[in-house]
Each structure stands twice: as structure tokens, then as C-alpha cells.
Amino acid sequence: MRLGSHLDQPVDSNSIHEVIKYIPSPLPGKYYDPDTTEPVIFGLQTLEELLSWNEANPFNVAAVPLVPREPPLDGCKHRTLVSHDMMGGYLDDRFIQGTYAESPYAFYHWQYIDIFNYFTHNMVTIPPAMWTNAAHKHGVLVLGTFITEWEDGSVACETFLKDEESYRAVADKLVQICYFYGFDGWLINIENTLSEIAVQNTPLFLRYLTDQMHQKVSGSLVLWYDSVTENGRLQWQNELNPSNRVFFSACDGFFTNYNWTEQSLESMRDYSEVQDRQADIYVGVDVFARGKVVGGMFDTKKALEVIRKYNFSAALFAPGWVYEALDRAEFRKNQDKFWALLSGYLDVHQLSSPLPFLQKKRSWFNLTAQEIQPLYYYEQDGQGWLRSRGCPEDAWNGGSSLMLDGLIPAVCASPVCAKCVSAHSLPPSPTVTSLNTQVLYLLGSSPSMYAQLELQECSVLTELCINIQRKGEAVDTPFICRVGEIMLLDVASLQIPTEQVQDLRIYDVVWLRGAGPSMEPVSSCLHLNATLQWKYPTKLIRHFKVYWRRLRGPDPRIPPGQLVLVGRAYSNCYRVTELVVPEPPSLIELVIEPVIRKGFLVPESQWGRRSLSYTEDTTQ
Length: 620
Description:
This protein is an alpha/beta fold. Helix content is 16%, strand content 34%. The chain folds into 3 domains: 47-351, TIM Barrel; 374-493, no CATH class; 496-616, Sandwich (Immunoglobulin-like).
């Protein structure tokens, strides 16, 4: 049963009152799950939807700005783009605050890529904020997708490409969407034939869109997919050539189709339009290996080898093949294998930022919770070997530890140096690095160890490594080292922040009747669903903890309850969903605790609090 509400919320009061009313829910269905009111995100299906777009989903605004990196994108001689196309898109990742999922797809080899494109066959694909947040933490740009295809696509193109006013209106909306949601640009994919007028206006549309994006979104990119030619025909060229150069000249880059040959790349390299812009050509690689392609699947490295031979960028389409087509129980193993095979053709970029990293909670899927990821790799040297991978079975804090395992051969007397993080930071002096590890050897183990190390005379920090050395007899020695957390801290900043959570608001309240945690009869439990919003500098926090507690209920003999964790928020808003609360009349309290990046506990006096009383509507 869905119950709506009218909310009485004085701005200057810490206590508000809610009268439960039986009215339709005020929440727009396109932004909230119809059963639970959880915030969700989907794309736009039609040109009319795009042109009428003026109300964004506040929950899908990216909370993490793009982190600087070395080298910057425009300083890379070639780049790597991932186009994430998986089973139609908007799967578990459509739930903006995360969802319970036993075996979701997650990406964590961020150090190898430069651009992430979220791809679906909606006309306008808006990336879920969790992907933008995770990518931005690693210095990776995020692109949405604008696609037209089939007969409906032709009709849409004839409408918006008929004149300057029409194509500018579409471009302006794309710019607004990108700016509001905080991602970094668009892949433009016109996969239908165009009339003479429409194809003449297409480069003008691209140039206008690209110029406006550059003005409104710093560092943004607009890429064109190899589809129609300058005569309006849908003819994939699988290369840049005179038939499609006009589109390349009007934007930031060109994404080729997948059926290229080495001769195609050689021809492109020698093409005059390519000179000084080789990095702007992204040679497409279909990881599913559909059609007549080079490489694909676990042989994708064959395509990368040829692409890098001619100094082009690469666009890996659907690397989620390791999840879709293979045994999901072996997902991590297969994903690590796939990227390890490519690692020789991928450049590792370094982050110019502080370096704490954690991973997401097991069984809970929310990539926003993903901290800066360590390096994942496999190396072999003679009889010895070293591997770095995520280990969800024995996490210290969060969903995974970093597992370093390998073999120290008997002939090796020097330590094994395991790289954990690649960075480009200018650490102030003094700087402290905290480390939590456990090392397991074939014949024994060391206890869990927490260490704090001071960096001495370190002008530029480029890597964090752990040395592992055998003690005792010179025999082949297998080892496992689990790293729970690494945190780089500026000693001068180790102070409890004085900021306080302010202006905690409660709105968009919806009441539901349904089963409780113990599956009581359907009519027995009252569920609170509400949006919380507050003010606090997000640059200080790792996340917020959201609590509730009972203050007073129908039975005065029951004392106030303890704080109960509802969930975690990664921005200054949170949607409480399906929270079982006491029957009316009752008084509850909702509480926001900042969890700051430096690790200190914020005093309760600086938390945000708001009490909510509610009664049945006696007028019905």
C-alpha cells in the first residue's frame, strides 16, 4: 500500500511533524523505483524527452571531481578508452545508492585506462553517478552516449539536423545534462542514413557541441563514432579516410568501427588529416570478437599490439565479456587474466592526489564506495613470480584486501619489491604513511601488523612499494601478503575538523505498509521512505553514516532506542527507503555522522540531527 504525505517543516526548527495521508506519491517514476522509492537512473529514449529535459535527478550528480593525473590526457602519446556495453545497461548500477548483489560486475583496473564510456542503446545514455565517481577518483574521464539508429533514428536526425536552431537546441541540452550530472563529454553515434541537408549540418552540430562543451565543462571530450559517411550513407569505414574526415575535424576524436586490418592502420598513419592527431583516433576493438576482427576475448592483446605499432589510441568495446560470457564464479580471476594479458600495451597513469584506498563491501554493489585502487599485475622472473590481486575473502576494512602472493626462489637473497600504488604527489613535510599488513609464509606467518612510517626528504612520491624478504634457510619460499589499508597523511592536517553538519532537511516522504524483517503479516509494519539533505564540505569526508532511533512511541513504557545504522551516503543527500518505524503516534530522530578521510572520529556535537513526529490522518 502506498501512502503519500504532506510535510510540515519549519526551516528554523529541529523538530518537524508529518501527517500520514492517503494520497498518490509525488515522486516522478523515472527517478525513483516504483516499489521502494529508491533513487534510480535511466537514459532518455526520444528526442522529445531530450528537448523537454529540465529536471535532473539530484541523486545522480557526481560527488567526486576529476582528480589530476600524470601525464595529463593531452600529454599521452596514445590513450585507452573502455566502452562499457553490458546487457542493455542500467543493471545493478541503476540503483544510485547501491544495492545488494551477490556477484555484480565491477571494474577496478582503472590505472590502465584514460576514458570510460557508458554505452546503451537509449538515445541519450546518462552515466550512473557511481561510475563517474569511481572513474574520477582515478583520473579517468567519463563519457555518456548520444545514439540514433534504425528508422526511428533517421526520423530524429531529420528533425534535429534540419537547421541551425534545431541542432543547437539538441547540443545545448546535451551540454546541460553533462554539466549538471558532472561527467566529461559524449560519444556521438549516428547509425542511420542522413539526407543531404542533415549530413551537411552534422559537422556543424558536432563543432557547436564541442565548442560549447569546452566552454562549460573543463577538459571535456566529444568523440565521433565511425558510421555514416559525408554523403549520408551508413557505411562503416573501419578507418579514418576522406569519406569521414569532415566529422573528425569537427570534434575531439574518432572511434573507428571494429573490422579494421593492419593495412587500415598503416593507411591512416600516412593520411595527412591524421598528422599531429594520432592520439585522437581510437581504434575500436570488440572484445566479443564479433565479425572479422583482429583479436578479441583473451586474444585482445593481438589487436593492441597492432594498434600500438602504429601509435594509435585504443577503444575496447565491452570488456565485460569476462563477466557476460564466462563463469561468473571465476569473474575476478578472468578479469585479472584479461587485463594482465593487455598490460604490456597499456600505460599506467599516476594520480596527483592523496592515496588512501579501500574497496567496496562484499555483497553490496556501489562503485562510489570504491577508493583509489592499487596496482594489479603479474610478474615472473626466472623461478620466482609475484602477483597482485584483490582478495574479498579476508578483508581488513571494506570488501577486499590487496593480496600480494608469489614465490621467492632459493637463489634470490634480495627482497621482493611489490608495487602497490602509482602516484605523482608532492608530499609535504612531515608526511606519515600508515600501513596494515599480514604476511603468510609456507612454514609460518607473521601477526597482523599496523605500522606508521615517516617519509624523509621525499620531494615527489611516484610509487608505494612493500619489500618482502625471506629470513632463514635459502629454499624456495611461497608467500602471501595481505594489505588492508595504505593511507598517506600530511601531519599538519591531522586535526579534527570544526565544521558541523548543518541544515538537515527531510522531504519527499512516502509511507509504505508491508512485511517487516521477520516477514510479519503484510499489514503489520509501517515503512518510512524519505529524502535527507544537509550541508557539509564533501572534500573532507570518506562518507557519511546515516542513523535513526526511536525517541517516543505509542507505548510510553518503552524507553528511547539506540542509534541504528541505516546506510552510507557519499554526497550531501540520501534516500531512506523501507525503514521499519514504530506505529503512530511516534517521534524518531534521524542523524548524520561525517566520516572524514583523515580517520578521526567527529564529535557527536558536530553531527546533524532532526527529529520527526508523525500521526495518522484523522480527517479521513
